[in-house]
Amino acid sequence: MSDDRLSRVFAALADPTRRDIVARLADGGDATVGELAEPYAVSVQAVSKHLKVLEDAGLVSRRKDAQRRPVHLEADVFDLMTKWIERYRREAEDRFRRLDAVLESLDDERGDPLDAPVGDQAARPAGASRTEEAAS
Amino acid sequence: MSDDRLSRVFAALADPTRRDIVARLADGGDATVGELAEPYAVSVQAVSKHLKVLEDAGLVSRRKDAQRRPVHLEADVFDLMTKWIERYRREAEDRFRRLDAVLESLDDERGDPLDAPVGDQAARPAGASRTEEAAS
DNA sequence: GTGGTATTCAACCCCAAGGTTGAAAATGTG
DNA sequence: CACATTTTCAACCTTGGGGTTGAATACCAC
Lengths: 136, 136
Known about the structure:
Two copies of one chain form a homodimer. Chain A is 54% helix and 4% strand.
């Protein structure tokens, strides 16, 4: 469970330590594993694991510099998230606006509400209209 | 670990089924637990648990309508995520621009690079400048 | 080559996450 | 009241995530 890209990204950011690492890379620039591990109470190995998670999610990449592995933040992934979020935020707001319109029209002329089958609050269960396919 | 708000939100969205539920609420409007569970292969109880996770994260709320519990998408949380993402995306880009400037100035006059201690690519380990406090 | 430093690999705990089934709770309906 | 419907609660199982420690790897410095 959770092997698609978005799942990995969200899962990676669900951990405060990993979010903090991202934050530090964002305003501190690239850093080595040791540097990144220093502030935390946990072992270097643990941080190394965290970095692997971030890497698998595509949030960071590791360069190779002698025995050091400087970690670099890949800002592109943010776009992926933003896109997902914005898409559904938008839809939710649109639907909301449509609902407002319906309520208004109901209030006004007290008759059949346009064409949008919005909401169905506590009315008949509708039952068949669900669209599928998890987020692209 | 992971009891703060953002952690719960990201963790909630790390599951494809839960993301799908959010997506369906976003463009289908409120729906009951049964309706939401119908498309999936899993039990209704499992979906009920998913909804609890979403609710604890503040992504949805449940109204009370007889024995049904219509689920409603709380679009506000999206702002929280967007804010977090945008903040660090911005910083990363700023840092990037600053780096460009430094490289440019190095290229130009071949001397001490302004004041911003950007990047330190493979130079001395710097060692002490890390700022703390995980994302608010 | 010997040694020190930086990072990962491997084996191992512990516990929370997602799933199951079965029963209980809450509420409309004959 | 008896019953069907919708949802949650409770107990349980299995898997994976985050942590640990100890060894292996890779590289620079002497």
